[in-house]
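Session log. Operator J.P. requested a structure for one protein chain; no other inputs attached. Running the standard single-chain path with token output.
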Amino acid sequence: MNILLAVDNSPHSKVAADVVLSRQFPSGSNFKVFCAVERREPVFAVMKSDEANALFNKALVAAKEFTEDVAGRIQSRFPDCKAFSEAIFGDSKESILAQAESWPADLIVVGSHGRHGLPRFFLGSVSQTILLYGQ
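Structure written below.
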């Protein structure tokens, strides 16, 4: 079984990781802890290009460290399984779906920020997009 755990170093992602760690999975399962760091263009409008790039590169390093940490915890919890991590620049929704398809994932686990109303309308919902994709 291939399990894709998409995280973003938020408290909601930490809950998703804890849920994965609390479950049982078949021996020989593969876990991919994945993070897509979005390079938001408005940041470039208010910062110098090199400062914005440094900020995004720092975010990518932090994402790599976080995904590696979670993958290590999964590997320790499930020693008869394989866990690895990946962090890239990209749109969260598109990148998660691309990973799920190309890997391919049997199960996708994401956290949810629980936004409602107008913020959800404007910000979208990664978890809702992932849920609707498989239908």
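Operator note: The helical segments are 11-22, 41-46, 49-77, 92-102, 117-123, 126-133.
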